[in-house]
Specification:
Elements: E1 3-9, E2 23-29, E3 38-46, H1 50-55, E4 75-82, E5 92-95, E6 102-105, E7 110-112, H2 129-142, E8 149-152, H3 160-169, E9 173-178, H4 181-190, E10 195-198, H5 204-211, E11 216-221, H6 225-231, E12 235-243, H7 262-271, E13 275-278, H8 288-301, E14 308-312, H9 317-322, E15 332-336
Parallel strand pairs: 8-9, 8-11, 9-10, 11-12, 12-13, 14-15
Antiparallel strand pairs: 1-2, 3-4, 3-6, 3-15, 4-5, 5-7
Helix pairs in contact: 2-3
Bound molecules: NADP nicotinamide-adenine-dinucleotide phosphate.
Length: about 350
Amino acid sequence: MKTTLQVQLAARPGPEGPALQNFALCDVPLRAPGAGEVLLETLYLSLDPYMRARMYEGANYAASAALGAPMPGATIARVGTSNADGFAPGDLVESAHGWQSHHVASPDTLRPIPDTGLPVTTELGVLGMAGHTGYGGLLRYGRPQKGETVLVSAASGAVGSVVGQVARIKGCRVIGIASGEQKCRYLTDELGFDVALDRRDPWFDAKLAAACETGIDVYFDNVGGEIFAATIPLLNTGARIAVCGTISVDRNQPPAQGTDRLTMLHSAILVKQLSLQGFLYTGLLDMTEAFRRDMTAWIASGELRYREDIVDGLENAPEAFLRLFTGENFGKSIVRVAHA
Ligand SMILES: NC(=O)c1ccc[n+]([C@@H]2O[C@H](COP(=O)([O-])OP(=O)(O)OC[C@H]3O[C@@H](n4cnc5c(N)ncnc54)[C@H](OP(=O)(O)O)[C@@H]3O)[C@@H](O)[C@H]2O)c1
């Protein structure tokens, strides 16, 4: 009988947050595809920060993952056996079947992968959900204007690198926050950011204030927490804050001491007439055509670059996933599950 290799959620994280022991590698039986169904072989699995929230009990904007089930996630898969019209063996599709090597799917859950001439992994990164979130979130909620200062955190990552480069293309002055010298050099030397700041620098707050001498017009917030707090006094009147992610805050952790800036934020929202908008990728899907048109053109012309952090082997997915929360990933995090 055919089987699928799965990385399952074996236990919910404890107070220390997600750890390797929360995952289990299991080979489970897989039924044959029925009428109208296809058998998929996973080639690539996307690893994304939202998966951490799914490991906990209780939903936030999506249901939590079930214990003993594969971790959720988007994949690029190859069609094997097909009993479905319009799908032939060898076709490549995007499927949300999670951390597993094979899956039987119904075609209405699949997105055929267009041939862009770029590596297929881009459909999980710069041309996928992450790139779309950066492009759409910046343009719709950041509303960057030529000459304005745009600040983005987790700037070398899948979302942040798109935000910063689109802001640069729109004529903004771009400041990126990342961890470590290598990522900061990448931002300025390869992606054309005006300034890169190391969030682990002991003088980070002072350097952020100096870099934002004329204030921040758009803050694309990928991390929340202390970095968000540090931006509040630097926001210009009318600044837009696009609240994309809160990776610095693990919801299992109690709030850190001394970082409660709520009163300060309320006052800044009023006095500086700020727009602070939380958003989800799913609310940006009406921008798909413009997103794909602009991004493929900018990548082809060399105006926009991307970086992928590809790890081999489904069994290595948990370790690669945990690197998202230590800043050890460098670029869009992807697991190669099988060779194309
Ligand atoms: N709203 C939506 O629909 C949506 C969609 C996609 C992604 N997101 C969010 O966007 C953010 C970026 O996602 P991504 O896929 O592009 O990930 P990524 O930037 O490729 O990787 C995560 C990065 O977050 C930074 N980070 C990790 N822990 C941190 C901490 N404690 N404090 C500050 N920074 C920390 C690290 O960068 P450095 O170490 O270099 O700082 C790490 O490399 C995440 O918060 C994610 O949840 C939201």
